Amino acid sequence: MRDFTLHSYQKLLEVLQQSGYQFLTVTDYFQHNYDPNQPFVILRHDVDKRPQQCVHFAQIEHAMGIRSTFYFRVIDGQVYEKELKAVLQAQHEVGYHYEDLYVAKGDSQQATVTFSKNLAILRQFYLVQTIVMHGTPHSKIDNKTMWQNVDYRAFGITSEPYLDIDFSTVFYLTDTGGCWDGYKYSVRDKIAQFQPLWEQQGLIYHSTQDIILALQNGTFPSRVLLTTHPQRWLNNPILWAKERLIQHIKNYIKQWVISLGR
Ligand SMILES: [Zn+2]
Q1: Model-level pTM greater than 0.90?
Q2: 150 contacts 108 by C-beta, under 8 angstroms
């Protein structure tokens, strides 16, 4: 069976559900809105492009009684309005997927100005309380460094998962790289401090089936942040094959870039 399709995502959710996992939005986690004696998975989605895919995710989850957090970008004052409304219609949380420091070419003052404007645009639709950086792997600029001198709480923001989640107790998985062990190709979408420890513990998953097997044999961590990019999860075989090929080439380039930085 092809991996990284809507079918395989749904299957993953089903096995998590059967294994007794609670599904949390990012805000649920920070508000301790869960049973601490049961395992949980925080579902985070970054809507980078191909926004119609996030609507499929939103609807699949909604049909299963699951709520999650979708982070939307604001590009030149524009949002994927139709898709954002569909996500809200399906009862999910919306956050801001910011890249203001990159857009401001590293000028943190300018980044703060556009951050505030973009947040206001998103808040026309939803009272955004959580933000997460867009990785901009092709740039030297790390968007989350804009918070070194500015506190996002001043904007009514309560959390930035990369900065605020306690990764000593929450395991991180992302589909960046088109697999679940793409941290080796990823410039920023990883938790560098804890990754070596997780590898030592054998918490390495390549395919979605690897995760499913770990859930079924009871070795999967009980507190997890799962980041997905819905654009990568495609049922259409032609689009799927194209995405896989592009991902392969990107990983190759990213690995090369990372090796240059060493
Ligand atoms: Zn992104």
Answers
A1: yes
A2: yes
Ligand 1 centroid from CA 14, angstroms: 26
44 pairs with which residues across the strands?
69, 227
Distance 45 CA to ligand 1 centre (A): 9
Total count of residues recorded for the chain: 262
Distance 141 CA to ligand 1 centre (A): 14
- Residues whose CB is under 5 A from ligand 1 (ion)? 46, 48, 134
Distance CA 170, CA 260 (A): 31
- 228 CA distance to ligand 1 centroid (A)? 10
Distance 216 CA to ligand 1 centre (A): 31
Fold of 6-261: TIM Barrel (3.20.20)
Q: How far is the CA of 205 from the centre of ligand 1 (A)?
A: 21
Is residue 104 scored above 90 in pLDDT?
yes
Nearest-CA neighbor of 124 among 70, 155, 81? Answer: 81
Task: Provide mean pLDDT across the span 172-196.
Answer: 89
Angle between helices 6-18 and 208-216 (to 10 degrees): 10
User: Residue 119: is its pLDDT beyond 90?
Assistant: yes
pLDDT digits (tens, 9 = 90+) for 19-36: 999 999 999 999 999 999
Cβ density class 191-230: b for 16+ within 10 Å, e for less: beebbeebeeeebebeebebbbebbeeeebbbbbbbbbbb
Contact criterion met (CB below 8 Å) for 221 and 197: no
Dihedral angle of Cα 230, 232, 233, 238, to the nearest 10 degrees: 140
- Tell me the C-alpha distance between 59 and 149, whole Å: 39
